[in-house]
Structure prediction request, 153 residues.
Amino acid sequence: MAEVTVATWNMQGEAKPKMLDLLHEVAPDVLLRQEVKVTTWPTLLASVDWSRAFGLDLRPRQAGAGGKQALGAAILVRSPGVLTQAAVVEQEGFIWPERSVTGLWSPPGNTRQMRLVAYHALHGGHGVIKPQTSQALGLWLGNQSGPVLAGMA
Prediction:
């Protein structure tokens, strides 16, 4: 298998110039992002040919969700790689599924697909939401077959 570079980080809603400069410098094959806003999503796509999935494209904001649903997770795979079967993670106990995105990807020089996951552990809920959602993700991951690469914040 060829060498693969992976980057993952929490954007905290912003596409800051230093972040974008680092993205160009590192030139990852796979980029797993958390806390991506609808308004910053186009900035990530502007300079590189990415196959991609964004939680808020896959599951748009729900009526009455308020600010908690203003952020999503994202997976970006540099061309010629292709992300397939992109979806939000659907698992009982998962709150705000748009903050978790998954898809399949074949690394360069390898015909075996790898499951990619970008996940943001939620804050709040008086110590209930984060553990509940993390436990639900763990159950979901346990049901996956084959290799999994996860970026979490």
Remarks:
- The domain at 6-152 is CATH 3.60.10.10 (Deoxyribonuclease I; Chain A).
- The chain has one domain: 6-152.
- Helices lie at 17-26, 41-45, 55-58, 129-142.
